[in-house]
């Protein structure tokens, strides 16, 4: 019902089992209270969240919605776009990037992958931009051409084909973003993929963290500090020295011959 009405849920803080009842003298807890909004409000207040407050003198927990319009943006990283596969020049850019480091000193695999990524990024800048604005421009151009009797059929067909391709590209883009595994492409499910992406981002967004003292922290810099200190402690070695007792329980499966084959230069 929620999805059918086009509503999305904000990320929640606290125990979301907001209702408590009794059945045959046994407690029952479930989530009955939610904060929902449509996609337009999610876009306007993209940094919002809901908080489940303590249950006092009622059988429902109060739900406090905090609406924030600030968007936390990290450094953009390279993401492969499936829409590129049908575009002219992609494989040429990949080949050029792969071969660019062959004659130099950096001809190993990581450097070649880096060169390919840079070549694809440069190639992508020369392509026609995608998105809703492109679709609206094509729709306007097509409507203008259809209303003008002097425009040839070939021009109208070309605009129609470009518009169809733009819709297809948009669906592919949101399909990739939604990470859908059961819904297929080609059925004009762009709005569904878009809603799935919005909901996944809302659920995965970190609103706050508990610090070492157990205090709930929501300030962005403090949350980043908690993240950094946690992983720094997790990956800091305690400098162990006695491995014999542990390794005695591990059976050897790699022989000297296999190890030599695994460590030989790649051909």
- Tell me the span between the first and last alpha carbons: 57 Å
Mean pLDDT: 78
Number of domains: 3
Shape: flat
- The main sheet orders its strands as 2-6-7
Evaluate the radius of gyration. Answer: 27 Å
The counted number of beta strands is 9
SSE string: EEEEEHEEHHHHHEEHHH
Q: Spans of 5+ residues with little confidence (pLDDT < 50)?
A: none
Largest sheet: 3 strands, mixed
Beta-strand percentage range: 5-15%
Structural class: alpha+beta
Q: Percent of residues in helical segments? A: 40-55%
What's the total helix number? 9
List the helices and strands and how they pair.
Blueprint lengths: L6 E3 L2 E2 L5 E5 L2 E5 L5 E3 H6 L4 E4 L10 E4 L23 H11 L8 H17 L6 H16 L5 H26 L11 H15 L4 E2 L5 E2 L2 H15 L9 H4 L8 H8 L4
Parallel strand pairs: 2-6
Antiparallel strand pairs: 1-5, 3-4, 6-7, 8-9
Helix pairs in contact: 2-3, 4-5, 5-6
Structural description of this entry:
The chain is α+β, with helices and mostly antiparallel strands. The chain folds into three domains: 7-66, no CATH class; 82-204, no CATH class; 209-263, no CATH class. Helices cover 44% and strands 11% of the residues. The chain has nine helices and nine strands. A three-stranded mixed beta sheet has the order 2-6-7, with no helix packed on it. It has a two-stranded antiparallel sheet with strand order 1-5. A hairpin with a 2-residue loop joins strand 3 (19-23) and strand 4. Helix 4 runs antiparallel to helix 5 (153-178) and helix 5 (153-178) packs parallel to helix 6. The model has no long low-confidence stretch (mean pLDDT 78). InterPro entries: Endo/exonu/phosph_ase_sf (IPR036691).
